[in-house]
Each structure stands twice: as C-alpha cells, then as structure tokens.
Design brief:
InterPro entries: AP_endonuc_1, AP_endonuclease_F1_BS, AP_endonuclease_F1_CS, Endo/exonu/phosph_ase_sf, Endo/exonuclease/phosphatase. It comes from Paenibacillus glycanilyticus. This protein is of the alpha+beta class and about 260 residues long. It has eight helices and 14 strands.
Length: about 260
C-alpha cells in the first residue's frame, strides 16, 4: 500500500501549481493533506469515484485544516482528539481499518516568538495519549507536519537554530517521548544516517535551491509495523508548497508474518 502526506500550505493555491498532476501520478491508496486552509464548499476535488474524501476544517477561515483522500472505505472516521480547543483548529483526522488506524495531523506551531510553545507542549501530551490508546487496539500509522526537526541531522543549520521554534529542546523531547511510546520514524528506520534530506524550506530567496531545509514531515508507525516498511521517501523535487510530499510504502503481509 502506498501512502502520501503533504502540507500543501493552501490547497487552492497548490492546485493551481500542479497538485493534480502529482496526485494522479502517485495513484496512492491514501493521500493525506495538512494546512488545506479551506472552509467547506470552497473547493471541489474531482478525484474519481474510487476515492473517498474526508475533511476537517478549522473554524478560523484560511487556517490549518486537514484532509484524507483514500481508495479504501474506512470502518469509522473521527476528527480531532476530543478536546474542544483542538477540534476548532481542524488538525487531526483518524480513519479506522480492520488492521490499523491511519491518522493525519498538523501539529501546532510554537510560533517564532515561542508564544504558543506551552499550548504546543500540552497538545503534544494529548496527542501522544490519544495515539497510545489507539495503539492498544491495533497498529497505528501517523503522518503529517509534526513541526519539529527531531535530531540535528534533520535540519541544515542545527547549531544556529537551537532553541528556535521547531527545534527547541522541549519540542524535540516530545518527539522522543512519542517514539519511545512505541513508534518508529519510517524514514530514519530505513535511512538512519542520510543527510540533506528535508521536507520544508523557507520562502526566502535561494533557500530551497541551496537545500537549506528542515525535515519536519513524517510517517510514523507502530513498532509492530516496522517489518512492513518497504520504502519511505521524500519527494523534494515536487513544488507547489513550501513543504514537499513524503511517501510511505507498506507490505502489510510482512508485518503479519512478523
């Protein structure tokens, strides 16, 4: 099965920059979006009758928002973490299947001045608890913009960015705790030492061309699914957003055999 995750930073703008070409080329089983920046009715996606569409809109116009397009009808669909503050921002969609849960997430940004760091850290606690409870029932696959570069290898200029939003010790520790709760970072599982592999770049001139980036978009999976991971990629040449898509390929029969 092929999974794609992409923070499109405004789906309408991304559609005008070739989104559908990439979507059709990938022909994914699951295509997950973050930061759609839409309200209901503001876009109509012609994806074909074999794709089901699930959306979670933020109450604030032009802000946040997530979506999942999938060929596989889920057993159930839920939005948010059951917490009022989070539900209003459209950050989480969960699809339940017979053998796993799939979650797309847009983790809150701490903001440049770190004014939202405390909110972010409290949200991370809720999110980890939510995933842990799901994982007690069946394996979990989590994808999205987690808004953190976990290790120094995950961004170009680690020393100068230490303490900045997305690379504070507190945010990195939350990521460590999430992985320690029974999840693997699929990309690092396959490529523990690969450098210069990034999924987000500033809009400042020549930054993306020089690959001065951060890896903040992930596919995490329950440790029990690790044997099922066939490939974990970063499509860094795909334009249309300040983020690029990340891709996961799973062979669930391997996981079952394990």
């Amino acid at each position: 099965m092929k999974f794609v995750s992409w923070n499109v930073n405004g789906l309408r703008a991304c559609v005008n920059k070739g989104f559908m070409n990439y979507f059709n080329e990938m022909d994914a089983d699951f295509f997950c979006l973050q930061e759609t920046k839409l309200q209901e009715g503001q876009i109509h996606m012609e994806l074909g009758e074999h794709y089901h569409q699930f959306w979670h809109y933020a109450e604030k116009k032009g802000y946040s928002g997530t979506a999942i397009f999938t060929k596989h009808k889920p057993l159930s669909v839920s939005r948010g973490l059951g917490e009022e503050d989070e539900d209003n921002e459209g950050r989480v969609i969960t699809l339940e299947y017979e053998d796993f849960y799939l979650i797309t997430v847009y983790t809150p940004n701490a903001r440049r001045d770190l004014s939202r760091l405390d909110f972010r850290l409290a949200w991370e606690e809720m999110f980890r608890s939510y995933l842990t409870k799901l994982g007690e029932q069946k394996p979990v696959i989590v994808c999205g913009d987690l808004n953190v570069a976990h290790q120094e290898i995950d961004l170009k200029n680690a020393k100068s960015n230490r303490g900045n939003s997305g690379f504070t010790d507190e945010e990195r520790e939350k990521m460590t705790r999430l992985l320690d709760a029974g999840f693997v970072d699929s990309f690092r599982y396959l490529y523990p030492d690969r450098t210069d592999a990034y999924s987000w770049w500033s809009f400042m001139p020549k930054i993306r061309e020089r690959n001065i980036g951060w890896r903040i978009d992930y596919f995490l999976a329950s440790a029990s699914l690790a044997p099922s991971i066939v490939e974990a990629g970063i499509d860094s040449l795909v334009l249309g957003s300040d983020h690029c898509p990340v891709v996961l390929t799973l062979d669930m029969t391997k996981g079952q055999e394990a």
